[in-house]
Prior knowledge:
Elements: H1 4-43, H2 54-87, H3 96-106, H4 112-122, H5 125-149, H6 157-180, H7 184-197
Amino acid sequence: MSNEPLLSEYASVRSEIQQLNGQVFAVLSSSISINIIILGWFFGKSNPSEFYALPTLGIFILFWGNIIMLNRNRLAHRLALFQKYFIESRMPDICWGRVYFKYRLKYPKSSIISGLAERLSESGTYMFFGVSVVNVIALAYIGLKPFFMDGSTVLDKTQVINFLIAILFSILQLCFNRLMTDYRPIDVIMRRISRQSGLTNH
């Protein structure tokens, strides 16, 4: 039996994964760039407190950028698992998927520092979260500045609510990262489908 159909499907899957990886980079860079523009415009105003919601808007943009990025990563992993079970199991010479997932399992166990470094390098969520923290600090600085300038002791309720919303969306980025980077259910279902299909030996 010719391997050409499998090789063609493999090329198609790899191309889709590369496209998704490119989209991840585009979303990451564009979201952070927009946020930098917003912060620059915010601090460029003579009275930033009048535009207090702008850093929160930046966090909101980062939040949705993070969701889109995680979605694209999840789609890429789904394709990689398809490749692992439906292509590589029938063509042993192709092993990218198998090696990749074994690497993900074993590398973090080599040491705590190595595992942390690997997770940080592969997840843009932490970059989004770090930039969001900068926005939160900016909100805290502008919100608390009057207390040191004119001795004010009255909190602006709107600013307080805005600040809490900013913190909430910053934390939600990490929560969604934990939820959407759990690929085990996809692995289980893909393995089950491969067994039921009769095409593979898994």
